[in-house]
Specification:
This protein has about 300 residues and is an alpha/beta fold. The protein folds into two domains: about 1-110 and about 285-290, Nucleotidyltransferase, domain 5; about 125-280, Nucleotidyltransferase, domain 5. Helices cover about 40% and strands about 20% of the residues. The protein has helices spanning about 30-35, 40-50, 90-95, 105-115, 165-170, 175-185, 200-205, 210-235, 250-265, 265-270, 285-290; strands at about 1-5, 10-15, 20-30, 60-65, 65, 75, 100-105, 125-130, 135-140, 145, 240-245, 275. The strands form three sheets. The chain has a five-stranded mixed β-sheet. It has a five-stranded mixed β-sheet with strand order 10-9-8-11-12, sandwiched between helices. Strand 8 (about 125-130) and strand 9 form a beta hairpin. About 40% of the residues are buried.
């Protein structure tokens, strides 16, 4: 069983050894937030779903935010603050003593899912970026999640970028919306014909040929390229996978991303550089969580 705990929904699926999802259901996170007992409500949902599939022995759970190095405790979950400092694994084992549980950061889990279940062969070392409301990232090294010194490495979305802001502030949802509204004022732009509060609408404008909308995604690519220069140099990894809902703009943003990388990196890196779109799409969270159960 794979569980993707997000700020909007809790998504649960049963995943077989080939990455095929046999069942999928979601619960709104807001109901648990408003209940006054998020953990208790989550356990009740899990009890309900596990009762449907008594043969399930292992459960992978992906959540945003930081975890203890031993992956027993949730430390800081900004999207769901009532989970801060919750010893989740012990709580789960007390309620379900016959099951095995695996906890992980959601970007890390999604990255691992690509290794096991991508339709194309992926090397054992790669950097994974997810573009959406925020910017998530992970590194897989020797086909294992790289967790850093104390367990929460590879937070590329929170490294400093241009204008004194974090990368996520520049190319997460809020940054994209801000840039689009600024460029919409340019002469000849038809961006105002779209809902500029929704990045997917800005992407639609770009696909429809709006020059200012295209420029938005080109800037996203430039920011991303600059951040990746540091990541590639630090980790010596030359394969990059880009996922998340906004990776739909991959064909536009990839050109400026590659341009930045080729200008900033030496031939040692560039000659083997491989940047491609992740393949698991909307199911990356659930399938990635399920992949935590594999040794």
């Amino acid at each position: 069983m794979g569980i993707d705990v997000g700020g909007t929904n809790i998504k649960i699926g049963i995943v077989d050894a080939n990455g095929v999802m046999e069942n999928k259901i979601k619960y709104p996170t807001s109901v648990l937030k408003e209940s006054g007992d998020f953990v208790g409500g989550f356990l009740d949902i899990l009890d309900k779903e596990l009762s449907k599939f008594p043969e399930i022995e292992k459960v992978g759970i992906a959540t945003p935010g930081t975890h203890s190095k031993d992956r027993t405790t949730l430390l800081e979950i900004a999207a769901i603050p009532m989970l801060d400092d919750v010893e989740m694994k012990n709580i789960l084992l007390k309620r379900f003593p016959t099951k095995e549980f695996f906890l992980e950061n959601d970007a890390n889990a999604a990255a691992l899912g690509e290794y096991y279940f991508s339709g194309t062969k992926i090397p054992e070392n790669y950097i994974f970026i997810t573009l959406g409301t925020g910017v998530g990232s992970a590194a897989i090294i020797d086909h294992k999640i790289f967790i850093g010194g104390d367990g929460n490495g590879m937070e590329l979305g929170h490294v400093l970028s241009k204008n004194g802001k974090e990368l996520e502030q520049n190319i997460g949802k809020a940054g994209i919306v801000k840039l689009a509204k600024k460029l919409a004022k340019k002469k000849g732009s038809k961006l105002n014909e779209y809902d500029l509060n929704e990045p997917k609408q800005i992407l639609k404008a770009a696909f429809n040929g709006d020059k200012m909308a295209i420029r938005v995604w080109e800037e996203v690519g430039e920011y991303l390229g600059e951040a990746l220069v540091g990541a590639i140099r630090l980790l010596d990894i030359k394969t990059i996978l880009i996922g998340g809902g906004l990776s739909a703009g991959f064909d536009i943003l990839i050109k400026p991303t590659k341009k930045v990388l080729k200008n900033a990196l030496t031939p040692y890196y560039v000659k083997e550089l491989d940047i491609k779109q992740a393949e698991l799409g909307n199911n990356a969270g659930i399938v990635g969580a399920a992949s935590l159960c594999f040794k």
